[in-house]
Specification:
Blueprint (H helix, E strand, L loop, with lengths): L6 H4 L5 H14 L5 E2 L11 H12 L12 H15 L8 E4 L2 H12 L5 E6 L4 H8 L3 E6 L10 H7 L4 E7 L11 H14 L2 E5 L20 H5 L1 E6 L12 E4 L2 H14 L5 H12 L3 H22 L14 E2 L10 H12 L1 E2 L1 E2 L9 E4 L4 H19 L1
Parallel strand pairs: 1-10, 3-4, 3-5, 5-6, 6-7
Antiparallel strand pairs: 2-8, 7-8, 9-12, 11-12
Helix pairs in contact: 3-11, 4-11, 5-6, 5-10, 12-14
The structure holds pyridoxal-5'-phosphate.
């Protein structure tokens, strides 16, 4: 039987980060001593009070369908979060809870983009953005950046890329995969251009709370009512509350867009998991002290890894200011990223993600969401791998 795969799916390749992570896990299961730098998730457990709230909800029989855009209590808690932390006023009707931040992104793109539309995506990008844009029938327009500008697009670059077909600008600060954090002034300059040109911004702020060296997060929506009217904020519980497996994300959008997304969601996934939403209410309204100790750990690992990477001949690395990734430049080793990572995994049992997955072939992504002992071991191996190339 010849199966015809629809064009929109046939051109997709599965997420390389998930693939490398599962390959590393499989090698581990086979008893091999693998060090995984591939993970896009915190190594800390979900805080206990969040789990307790979900368990209580389950025990109390909170196991049925909820409203498709989320329970009112959670949408209110999210609106309160935006007021408290970002100075932004949203009605609960502008908030949609989805099955993960990834799902929130996909909903936004499906609701706003179609055939003939262009979507501007700075590279290195989170690898799902261009695929989602293609699934919606629209065309990704990639703006390349390098470590020389800390992987930041300039206002001139953005302005030059905008055409009458530009529908959406996808912006992610703090960034996965680079860990870059734009300053408020830089964010405002990009936002101003989008407002002037009538381009919507999808601002993925899922790493908002993971910042180092005094870096600050500022939502592009917060500069003026016009900026807010041009912005859809995407966020989720995966990173700052370590709830990756719970599959809960959220977004805040202008009312007509929120309404369109509610309709899409009601016909595709219905509601996000009922009792997980009760856990999310506890995440937002409960104590946040876990974050301080996690950030302390991440900061130590980041400093160690950044120094170690820069001590390896052929590798240079700008320090990250947010998230839990470093994005070292490997061009001095003479290898491109896919071969580098394949050989590193084969020879030294170290899993890292090739930069080509993020649109940047001279780099690899190192996640430091893993213990310091692991980082030391893995980077020692990476060091001898690179030195072996020179020999
Ligand atoms: C992790 C992540 C998300 C959302 O992940 P979910 O697990 O779907 O909540 C969104 N954007 C970026 C850039 C991420 O790294």
């Amino acid at each position: 039987m010849q199966y015809k795969i629809a064009r929109r799916a046939a051109s997709l390749s599965p997420s390389l980060t998930l693939a490398i992570d599962s390959k590393a896990k499989q090698m581990k299961a086979e008893g091999l001593d693998v060090v995984g730098f591939g993970a896009g998730e915190p190594d800390f457990d979900t805080p206990q009070h969040i789990k307790d709230a979900a368990v209580q909800a389950l025990a109390a029989g909170f196991t049925k369908y909820t409203p498709s855009s989320g329970i009112p209590e959670l949408r209110q808690a999210i609106a309160d979060k935006f007021r408290r932390e970002n100075g932004l006023e949203y009605k609960p009707s502008q908030i949609i809870v989805s099955c993960g931040g990834k799902h929130s992104c996909y909903n936004v793109i499906l609701a706003t983009c179609e055939e003939g539309d262009e979507v501007i995506i700075p590279a290195p990008y989170w690898l799902s953005y261009p695929e989602m844009v293609k699934l919606a029938g629209a065309t990704p327009v990639v703006l390349s950046t390098t470590d020389r500008t800390e992987f930041k697009v300039t206002p001139d670059q953005l302005r030059a890329a905008i055409t009458p077909r530009t529908r959406l600008f996808i912006f992610n600060s703090p960034s996965n995969p680079t860990g870059s954090v734009y300053t408020p002034e830089e964010i405002r300059a990009l936002g101003d251009i989008c407002v002037e040109k009538g381009v919507l911004i999808m601002s993925d702020e899922i790493y908002e709370h993971l910042l180092y060296d005094g870096a600050v997060h500022r939502s592009v929506a917060s500069f003026s009512p016009a900026h807010q009217a041009h912005t859809i904020i995407v966020h989720g519980f995966a990173k700052a509350w370590s709830m990756t497996g719970w599959r809960l994300g959220f977004l805040a959008a202008p009312e007509p867009i929120a309404k369109a997304i509610d309709a899409i969601q009601s016909h595709s996934t219905s509601n996000p998991c009922s009792f997980a939403q009760k856990g999310a209410v506890a995440a937002l309204t409960g104590p946040q002290d876990h974050l301080k100790s996690w950030l302390g750990e991440y900061a130590k690992r980041r400093t160690y890894a950044w120094q170690k990477l820069n001590s390896i001949p052929g590798i240079t690395c700008v320090n990250s200011k947010g998230a839990f990734y470093l994005f070292p430049n490997i061009s001095g080793t003479g290898l491109k990223s896919a071969e580098f990572c394949a050989r590193l995994l084969e020879q030294e049992k170290v899993a890292a993600v090739p930069g080509i997955a993020f649109g940047a072939d001279d780099y690899i992504r190192i996640s430091y969401a893993t213990g310091l002992a692991n980082i030391e071991k893995g980077l020692d191996r990476l060091d001898s791998f690179v030195r072996g190339l020179k020999a």
